[in-house]
Amino acid sequence: MTSAQVDQHRDGNEAVRAEGNEGGEGYQRGLGARQIQMIAIGGAIGTGLFLGAGKGISKAGPSLILAYAVAGLVIFFIMRALGELLMYRPVSGSFSEYAREFIGPFAGFVTGWTYWLFWVVTGITEVTAAAAYMTYWFDIPQWVSALIFTVILYGANLISVKLFGELEFWFSMVKVTAIIGMILICAGILTVGFSDAGDTASVSHLWSDGGFFPHGVGNTLMTLQMVMFAFLAVELVGVTAGESKDPKTVLPKAINTVPWRIAVFYVGALIMILSVVPWTSFQPGVSPFVAAFEKMGFAAGAGIVNFVVLTAALSSCNSGMYSTGRMLRDLALNSQGPKVFTKLTRSGTPLVGTTVSAALMLVGVWINYQWPGKAFDYVVSFATISGMWAWIVILLCQIRYRAKADRGELPRSEFRTPGAPFTSWIALAFIGMVIVLMGIDKDARVSLYCAPLWGLVLAVAYLVLKRRNPEAAAFRKR
């Protein structure tokens, strides 16, 4: 790229700051700073923490805390890599756009459709968890609750992006407030000694009940699949780039909150819970937050926490419906999806893409009807492998972008990844290790069987699409 082209590109990026209510791709820039911040904070607080952590605690004991801490550091590397790309070119559907530019059109095609599938599957996962939480209060079939929640969230996503942002703001506020409140209560029990758990609460529970690694380091490593699932959706801020007010300022601030929110909401919360209640008291499939309050003797508190985790699940499902419509539209704008997906409502909502995605999420209702006790485990492993594909693409694109920027072929990002490209390669190696561990785990192995089949379907579809429409294999920077 010549110096004149670099200057032109920089001028284009400056224009993003000057945009008003209308986004660069026809979207409305209706997401403000407080909404983006709460989406970033609350995006990773979902069923992976509130429900999945119960299984992780039973398998790894207190060492699950270390697993969350190490994986959280890797997530920070991924998010800083994404931030560097977003500051270079903030666009909706960022992952597939960057894949087209830095890897190739086929990579963009695969990434767009895989991330879309990821959120469809994740939506099923979250609505499944929400339906399971409803059984705490009501003796109703899970599939009934799943159907009701899917329909309600679909309707909410059709109104406007501003309403989506407000819903996510308050969903996240409930989650954040609840976790901070629980941490303070646990701290009070440890220092003052009130409640049924006051006499036995002690930080020594972290190492006295069989040690910090009660089932060995191997079992701790095997929990990394569930741990990484808990962090899925942190990259959602990249999808909001096309609808964010002043993305050059807001997005870096949101990304830089990653270390402290992981430290507080994952590591801090688990340290407190496992200090107050011994890890041996938790069971797979039961929220450790609800179980902890029951062990403390706070029956009302357990009901409140169950409401909070229900909110967390619905929040993640809401985010899924938001992102699927945008990803389908991005594919369509690049001639890699049906043109009907490009249409927006007057409020800037991709109606057709959101409707198709919500319809497919209803498959989750059928899963709940067929296997109400196993539905969550069936879909979580496939969601993990498809979500990690987006992380792999982000890291590869950042490595290639940084190399071109250092050679002067592209303008340097204003938000550079610390330690890159070494930190990006470390993150890629960590993801590779998690995938190997999934192959060892017989319960998670099914997702690795599904991945090649999905790849084959996409390869055949791309060849057919490319033959019918050569524009599908061309990259056009928007």
Question: How would you characterize the overall build of this protein?
Answer:
This protein is mainly α and 478 residues long. The chain contains 22 helices and no strands. The protein has helices spanning 3-18, 33-42, 47-50, 52-60, 64-88, 94-102, 105-134, 142-157, 161-191, 205-208, 216-222, 224-231, 236-239, 247-255, 258-276, 288-296, 299-333, 351-361, 363-370, 375-406, 422-440, 445-468. The chain starts with a helix and ends in a 10-residue tail after the last helix. The model is unreliable at 1-23 (pLDDT under 50).
Low-confidence stretches: 1-23
Kindly state the mean pLDDT as a whole number? 81
* Rg (C-alpha, Å): 22 Å
Largest sheet: none
Beta strand count: 0
Category by helix and strand content: mainly alpha
Terminal Cα separation, in Å? 17 Å
- What is the count of DSSP helices, taking H or I runs of 4+ residues? 22
Beta-strand portion reads under 5%
What sequence of helices (H) and strands (E) makes up the elements?
A: HHHHHHHHHHHHHHHHHHHHHH
What shape does the CA trace take? globular
Portion of residues within helices: over 70%
